[in-house]
Design a protein that fits this description.
There is one protein chain. Helices cover 22% and strands 35% of the residues. The protein is α+β, with helices and mostly antiparallel strands and 430 residues long. It is elongated, with a radius of gyration of 27 Å. Bound molecules: zinc ion (ZN). Zinc ion binds next to α1 and α5.
Length: 430
């Protein structure tokens, strides 16, 4: 068994009814298991066609009082507490159905979602977990929030806040984002607001559900009647909760330490966008594979290694590899004497090796893996390949399901197609 972390979904569905914090409207929430690589996707079941809204920074529609996701007209408000609860349990894939435009507020913390997820359980899936690549330290300032981010072994957040209120003042916390301690120390921390703001917000039709039952409401010098703090620094703990929920919008697991000064939703979302932008840039700048690197991915050796170089690469999408064909190839001795022609099946083998690189690229623990080809389809040879030719293989992914990948490959020489095929490959443990 490989020790690479796997993706997780829910073992079974779960449901919850409640009231939205800002709208005060009743809402029903349903969590359902989802296949590998789905991510967390919201579904508005009360709207025609049940539109889907992926929990990703590219779908953020607002950061006023909470984080809002949107797709066209369909919106879901206040997603961050549920997302934090999902992160802590390493749930990568789930459908979140809601019949309104705001999630239930619960008591203003993530406890209600943590309990719901406890009941759903987790189910390990047949694909490696995705981690956001980051290998540099950087800082970001946005909307009065300041962040310093550094790569780390695990995931940690260290927020600090400064409010001129007798109960808050300057608060600092540092929390490891993992199941046990974060669920105990951070998920139960409640959102907070000032009574004067709540009254102003009510005037604007917001915070309709806001009451001491679902938020810490601060007066000028204390808390409104009937509320007690769970910790004296509950305020900064809630900021840690919001930060983890908002950063879940990168759509991958994180291994980094975020130090955050006065974090807020607008800043958190800007940071999530920056993390995604840096990861995408890193993917594009990925060095193209040389023959030395290719031999680390593929077990094939002379005379059966038929890829010389990889010149283009897009993760899980396409790859372009080259094979230089020379008169010194061993197969030309007998295929055919006096008339060297590259055997057609070896052209397809070379194409399959390029495709194998594309499949293996997404795997960890490469020395434990090998690619088997399960089927070939629509194979066509268009023209002969002879010494001196350079074959350019372009292989694109048609479908990935777990460890199985369907690809389409085309080999060309000087722009003319020499062979094409559809291939099905599966990665197995060696
Ligand atoms: Zn919050």
């Amino acid at each position: 068994m490989s020790s690479t972390p796997r993706q997780n979904t829910l073992a079974r569905e779960g449901a919850l009814a409640g009231t939205g914090l800002h709208t005060g409207a009743p809402v029903k929430l349903r969590l359902l298991p989802a296949p590998v690589d789905t991510g967390i996707v919201f579904r508005r079941t009360d709207l025609p066609g049940s539109p889907e809204i992926p929990a990703h920074v590219s779908h953020v529609a607002g950061t006023d009082l909470g984080t809002t996701l949107g797709q066209g007209e369909a919106k879901v408000h206040t997603v961050e507490h549920l997302l934090a609860a999902l992160v802590v349990r390493d749930i990568d894939n789930a459908w979140v159905e809601v019949d309104g435009h705001e999630l239930p507020a619960g008591d203003g913390s993530a406890t209600v979602f943590d309990r719901l997820l406890e009941g759903c359980g987790a189910d390990e899936q047949d694909a490696p977990a995705r981690y956001l690549p980051l290998d540099e330290t950087f800082s970001l300032a946005r909307n009065g929030s300041e962040y310093v981010v550094a790569p780390a072994e695990g995931y940690r957040v260290s927020p600090s806040i400064d409010f001129s209120h007798p109960l808050i003042g300057r608060q600092y916390g540092s929390f490891r984002v993992e199941r046990e301690s974060f669920a105990r120390e951070v998920l139960p921390a409640r959102t907070f607001g000032f009574l004067r703001d709540v009254e102003a917000m009510r005037g604007r039709g917001r915070a309709q559900g806001g009451s001491p039952e679902n938020a810490l409401v601060l007066t000028e010098d204390g808390l409104v009647e009937g509320t007690e703090l769970r910790w004296s620094d509950e305020f900064v703990r809630h900021k840690a909760l919001d930060l983890v929920g908002d950063l879940a919008l990168v759509g991958a697991r994180l291994r980094l330490h975020v130090v955050a000064e006065r974090p807020g939703h607008a800043g958190n979302v800007a940071l999530a966008k920056e993390l995604v932008a840096r990861a995408e840039k890193k993917m594009l700048a990925r060095p193209i594979l040389t023959i030395e690197q290719i031999t680390q991915y593929l077990p094939h050796r002379y005379p059966f290694l038929l890829v010389d170089r990889v010149v283009e690469f897009e993760e899980r999408k396409r790859i372009v590899g080259l094979k230089n064909v020379t008169i010194n190839e061993p197969f030309f001795q007998g295929h055919f004497p006096g008339k060297p022609v590259m055997p057609g099946v070896l052209i397809i083998e070379a194409m399959a090796q390029v495709g194998g690189l594309l499949v293996l690229e997404q795997m960890e623990n490469l020395d434990e893996k090998v690619v088997y080809f399960m089927s070939l389809d629509k194979v066509k040879w268009r023209r002969p390949v002879t010494p001196g030719d350079q074959i350019r293989f372009e292989v694109e992914v048609l479908q990935i399901r777990g460890a199985t990948c369907k690809m389409r490959g085309v080999g060309t020489v000087d722009g003319n197609v020499v062979a094409e095929a559809e291939m099905m490959a599966r990665v197995v443990d060696r």
